[in-house]
Amino acid sequence: MFLAISLALALITYYAMGYFSATVEKVWALQSQNPQENVFLALESYPILLSIIVLTVPIFEEWIFRGILLDEFSRRLRSRSIGVTISAFFFALFHLSNPGTYPAAVLPLFLGGVLFGLCYLRVGLGGAILCHSTYNLLILLNVLPLPGV
Asked: Is residue 14 part of a domain?
């Protein structure tokens, strides 16, 4: 059940954030003019480093944003919904530091943070890490060119 929920939410997050990002970009005409600003593309010539980032960064992000912030806000404010909302907000703001990320990207990133938070509440920290890592892997597979093509 743990694996099924984590992977299902990773797919939902991938498609929901993709759709929402495309909508935000259309509404605000915010498509990046420099594709090299994409974090994954900028590191494509370093596949080992890129793999480490895709697989390990979600461990720390989920531990901080779900394991610490979501739990603390939920406990102190006595509301898991508020905990998910606040941790997702900080998660989105944190990702503004990624190269090529524009301010309106906070909206789809917030949605991703909410979905990772729901995964955390349903199956725990390990599930949220798996969900987030799978999401990153899906982006990586979609962004990087196929070898030999």
From this structure: yes
